[in-house]
Amino acid sequence: MKMSILVVTLSISYTCAAVASAQSRKPANPSATPPSVLRLVRQEATIARNAEKEKLQTAMSRACDRLESPSSWINLQSLSGSAETVLFEPFDSYQHWEQSLAEWGEFYIRHPDVARLQEEKDRISGSESKTFALRRDDVGYLADTIDLSEMHYMRVLEVRLFAGHEDEFVESLGLLSDAYRKVQADTPWVVYEVDMGTTTSTFLILFPLATLAQNDNLLAIKGALLDAEGGEAAEHAKQVARESYASTQSTLYAVKPALSHVPKEFAEGDPDFWRPTLTPGSRPSSRSKEIAPKN
User: Distance from CA of residue 76 to its chain's centroid?
Assistant: First the structure.
């Protein structure tokens, strides 16, 4: 039997849930807010050549830190489920993404070594899939306080729905948001609806985490959330789950800053994490100092 969205979120995703006043949160970094359009590039792990690929990816990231690259990405590597890498690519709009494609073409022309190194990276990479998702501002909890520059981990709850049940699912998310507000849970989460890349109606609930220790607060808040949701609301959520959910999957990812490229103003939110000082011998070679991502 499928569980309610509340139980799925708490029991499967094990998301942090500290009781604290929402008003105590500091303002989010404007350059590190959840994007309006999210492009996710999922790549299969190729264990045999993983070290070689990571070396190329690191060189690419450091080159794009120095150069004015057209777009940015955050590298996420799974800690649960099947082994995979996900490139989290933020855009303001589809027009912004389209513009970046043209700019990457010009970038490759200006830096031919980048294109050659990218081809080498593509050659040793496994298969990949691309998904576009749009942020849903009508649901979520404290989403406007999320600062992605403070994120070291991310929990992604993916919910695939049967056709025609989108409204019921969104209503359940609204009930969950209300329950969080009643107990003043300091657990921000943002919701995306997949726009392209899947054959079924799919929602992504993202929980950015600064530390895994935040999950230790789960048991302290779980009972309070269940009480706040109320019996009638809980039963409604369970009914929605039974009738609407085709499948659910929760995956925990670790952020890999050495394999990521973020703007300078983004990195300033946690410079020791995003821009650590290079140790002797860790600087990329001159041959591999310029590389750019595939679009």
Answer: 8
